[in-house]
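Two proteins, back to back. First:
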Amino acid sequence: MSPGEIAAEAPERTDQGRKAPVRLRDTALEAAANAIVIIDREGRIEWANPAFESLTGYALAESVGRRPGELLHSGAHPPQFYQSLWRTILSGRIWRGEMVNRRKDGSIYHEEQTITPVRDAAGVITHFISVRQDASERKAVQAALDAERRRYRELVSRIPVGVFRFRIPADGRRRHFDYVSPRLCELLALDPETVESDARVVYDAVHPEDLPELESLVDRASVAGTAFDWEGRFVVDGQVRWYRVETRGGVWAGGDLAWDGVLSDVTERHEAEARLRLDAAIIASTRDSVMVTDLTGHIVLVNRAFVEVTGYTQRDAIGKTPRILASGRHDAAFYADLWDTLRRQGYWQGQVWNRRKNGDIFPEWLSISTVRDAAGRPQHYVAVATDISRLKASEARLEHLAHHDPLTDLPNRLLLKLRLEHAIERARRNRRRVAVLFVDLDDFKTVNDGLGHPAGDGLLVGVARRLEARMRSTDTLGRLGGDEFLLVLEEIDEREEAAVVARDVLHAFDAPFELPHAHAIHVQASIGISVYPDDTDVASELVRNADAAMYQAKQRGRNRYHFYTSELTRAATARLALEGRLREALEAGEFLLHYQPMLTLDNTRLLGAEALVRWQPPGEALVPPDAFIPVAEETGLIVPLGLWVLRTACRRARAWLDSGFPLRLVAVNVSVRQLLHGDMVESVRATLAETGLPASHLELEVTESGLMEQGSRAIEVLDRLKALGVRIAIDDFGTGYSSLAYLKRLPADKVKIDRSFVRNLPDDNDDAVIVATIVAMAQALRLEVLAEGVETGGQLEFLRAKGCDACQGYLFGPPVPEEAFELLFKRARWLERADADGD
């Protein structure tokens, strides 16, 4: 049935006058380019135009009466698709969509279809008109476009830079991005939708310091739509990164300005450039010499330090080889080993001697490294060198100082030991002798304290130079320390040869020493001699034996030499044993005090008592002070021993006072070593406070010779003790050769005449004159005078006649323990009463 016949069925179309328009409509439908199909309510084809036959391959005769699905079903759509379609058109609505069908020849094609329901006069749907258009070509084009778009997006997403299109509309609308690639959003840590909806988020990510520059650049490019490039900083996830923006711009239809561009991360390049600038600054400013060569060894770069160290300018060095620095001190094998190590390990380090441009040869610590490219291939060699001239000089100086005395520049104890050991080895091989001379200056301490340490140092230097002038080339002269010198004499056969040298050394002191800012000084020396192999074959023992012999020389009058003997060893061994016993005795409390009375000479009344220490080993005889006091002095034990004597004597004196004994004072001997070691003043103050003894009842006795040795240092301590209120007595007066001027400086209350001047009174005229002079001098200085060692009535009467104030000695009683001394108290009081009764 034709469309006209379908229409003729309607009563309204029976009018013959209307048949002409129907034929025209049929002709139009026949000639339409789109396929048109009329389908009844059952879904069967009633009519189709020629375009349908061209589209599907089915002729009209083949199609009429059949459902389209029977002819064209491709299987591409599920049943639900068709169910939805029929629900739509049966409801009277038009369906539009795309469908995949199959032609008669089996080929698949796409079509766009519109199905429109047709109603009769009563409004009942009677037919459906389907208009179909082949969409295969459009689909193919669209698929190609989609594929191209996918390939483009995939390409854009894979490249390491971000891609964008930025637009400024001509109508004044807000600037925006037409497109941003995922990589761009990834680089800026932004969401793509946010970026495309609000371009400001990109501006907000720019570093605040760089944003004004970018905005100004965009504004200038907006005037004419020109391209622009820019590098700047962005803040991404809290970190600052560098990005480069490159664009190409233009004016689009409608007047819009648009820029297509890329954004790339150049942070690593900026950091590398910064490192390069830093490295360049470091190389330029470092004090180490830097030289870069190519693989052929030609210099391509040197820094400023290289120029300063070598004297070669950059123009002198570049293009040359490092051979311009060769000193000639290294042979070919040295350089061959250097290059072999460098090629194998890529690194070499060591000390080299090079030559400056002016010809000076100097040492350097050189490090050479191979510089490789990213593939690991060698590109250059970099040599960094440190001029170690000063270090070498310092090392030599330190080496010298380690083995030489800094004051005299003579070998020190360490070097002397080494040379003595070598001398003994040579003498053992050659069957000869080695002599060691231990030289110690006499009374050097008096010079050092009296004139000051600079004068003392000057004297030591003068002695060193004078002794050096008398040494043979085979001999060694060194300083052990203080005023002690050591001579090592080699190539001697007889002991007497050492004596000849010793006498020559003593003659070296005949002439005075002229010191700056001081008078000429006369000084003498004592020498001890030990000989290998006669005395020992050990170096340290040779020195020790010579030291012991030197002490013997001093004890025999000084200004002489003395050979070591085996007796000295025995004496030294005994002394060491005594020192050990003394320490044990001090810890065990084996010491006790004896007291000797001191009396006035005018009426022989008791004045006080001198406390004298004694040593009582358990089960042995009492040890006199002369046997252990010198050892205590030398070892320093005199300090704790002296403090024990002080406390014990003050405690006993306080007890006697509390018992009613008329004791005016207790005298305690004080070593000069006590004065100068520890805080003697504080010890006395604490002892007086602890015992409760008034300071005026304590008299401290210091020997004249000890004060002469220590000089002003001891006087300063005595002044501080005197300020406590205690009395000061000068013991053994007359033996120290002090002058009247020196005596005036002492804060003394009393002088005690040494027993050696009292022993032969009144018969010895010389002693009588000395004693009379001491008394007169003391009286002139308003000092009390006490004579020690009074044993006869004649001595007593002589001293009384000369005006001596007090005395002590065996005439009145020996030193006795405290219990016995209390009896002397009572006898003294009885004598006092007897004298009073006689009056």
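And the second protein:
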Amino acid sequence: MNRLSLFTKQKKSMLRRMITVSLFISIVPTVITGLGSYLYSSSVVETEVNKANYQFLKTASDNVDNKLQTIQINLLQLLNTPYFLSDYNENLSADQIDFFSKVCKTLGAFQNTNKDLRELALYIPGIAYMSPTSGVIRPDGLFSREKLDNELKKDYRLRWLEETFPVTSYAEKSRGITLMNKFPLVSSDPIGLVLASVDSSLIRDIIGDSTVYKGQFMFVVNENGGVVATSSELMQPTNFYEHILKAADAQSKYNFTWNDTTYLVTGITSNYSHWKYIDVIPVKELRAKSRGIAFMTMGIVFFFLLVGVIVSFLGSRRIYRPVERLLTSMKGESHTEFDTDEMGFVHRSWLDLKHTASQLENELSQQLPIIRETFVLQLLQGQFAHYTAVQMNELLRRYRLPEQAEFAVIAIAIDMNANQKGKFRDNDKELILFAMKNIIDELSSECGWQGVTVSVLNDSLVTWIWSVPDAHRWDKEEPDFFIFADRMREALANFVHLPVTAGLSGTAYEVKELPEMYRQAMFALESRIIVGRNKVLRDEGASVSEGIYPVELEQHYENSLKLGNQEEAERMLNDFSVAVKRLAGSPEGVLLYYNQLLAATLRTAYALHVEPKQLFGQDDPYSYIRKLKSMEDINKWFVTALIAPIIAAVQGNRHGEYELMVKTAVHYIHDNYNRDISLEECADHCGVSTFQLSKWFKKMQQTVFIDYLTDYRIQKAKQILLETDLPVNEVSSLVGYQRQNFMRVFKKLVGITPGQYRESVQKPHSLEP
């Protein structure tokens, strides 16, 4: 509001005198304050500017470090993923196109999310240079191959280098820096490098944002004195940087003269990159700041003139202050101008507030059902267990819910699968749930009951239903919630044309029992995986059985897969299902047993060299099995998705697998002969039974397992005795024997003791008669 308008009916002379006095009073302090400000500011302006320059330089350094740290952290997160942590030493070859494509795709996705990167590549000597920008380049065609090989030999895990590595001789040789990482990251023997290159323009843009004076520029040098980046459009002569760096070694701030121009030079060193950030500002530009003191003085004069004008109004505003406070409170932060007197504005504002309150009340009433459902869901989940009875009753009254009644909780779920098509598509789930809520509300109303239905996880509904007793009904029979639940389930099934299962809790009379009833209903619903679906289920208080997992059936099942006997495997699966029903007393128990059987099946498939992609593509079998709603569906899925493909693979590749099994066993002996290994351990490593390994090892190697192991150990012992001077007891330990057993076996196979053998080899004439 224009303050002058408040006094339009007052005498003009009084207002003029007050204004004249206020202006006179403001002159003296204005002159004194202006002169003092000028003298004081002239003395401290350079000091304050220097502090600001240092802060600008620190900010530029922190921004560059944060940018580099962000790139480093993001790249480390990428390299710590399971894919990049794998061991590639044994299986990687130069013709793995799928590997190159996947690496380029993964690096490309990372580079797209890190726009500051110019080049992101994985280099493996002897294999390829892989980059989403440059593609896949063989090592013999890589321009920087020698430099990269030298970096791989150096003793560091990762670091920033002040150079780039062009892939070809005609590639653009722009200035930049590169984050070099050994690959794999956690390997003690890395096989390659991951390169993340950044243009110097990134650093130049960051430090350029901190230059505010004409002729000012910043530059960054590395620990060797090389210029990493500069904010100047034109590079200065080399000796210009050298002179500055030479003086900067002795002090962090000083004046430097070059070509008759004096500069203020400020330098700091980054704790992260150990680069030096140096700011160069012409001193004449700093001194030009003192010209702003004149403007400051003018501002002070204007300020005190304004103060004088305000003081002139203090007397009148003292009487007007109560009305002003009222107007300020009603206006808030708005700048509405009055078109009537103050009381008219107050009246109009009151009507507006009343209208707004009415609108808010209407909106609250519209949102009340949603808020009420949210409260009921939290109540069922036990989130108000710590509330007192008084607090809980207040909340129940607020949401129009009963404090005491005959309660029951019903959990409802639709079972959709690929073999059953209802009248809705999968993307119509929200519409289905909305329609089901309406049906439940109508049925509740028809039965004379009340209830609230809420949505929970896994596209299920939970209905809290109650029958409030009164004087006329108190002696009547308790409401039959089971009949209502079955009627509701049948109506919903007819509506969606899909199986609908309902889980019913017991009956309770106090609100504090609702969380336990909710648990009963959900547990009863989940038990459909055991007792079947499309019915009303009750929680019979079942618990997980203490029965032992049927290991024998699992082993027989695995052997049937390995032998390619599909009929026997399916019979074992059916026997396993019967055992699960007897031993597992809960849905989670059933899933636990089947998950263990799934793990055994996948382990067997892996041993038989059946890739998971051949069985179920990219899908997660453990997630898929949780979507199945009955043991019958799980058994069908096991037969079609696992047993049949594995049996087919076994029957088609059995002989080749036996050869591979024996080769694996031989490699295992060669790698572990120095340990106390056994046929059982080797068979477990090969994923087969001891009978299979013993049979096929003898057939293909023309000797039994233990004889082959013993002969290989003795050959290694001969080699050690010949090439070293180690004592016999240490030699025996190196080849996996205790000393007494080693002496006995060695003499049995060679005919002489280890010491005699070493002596005979080193001094053959000593054994001659």
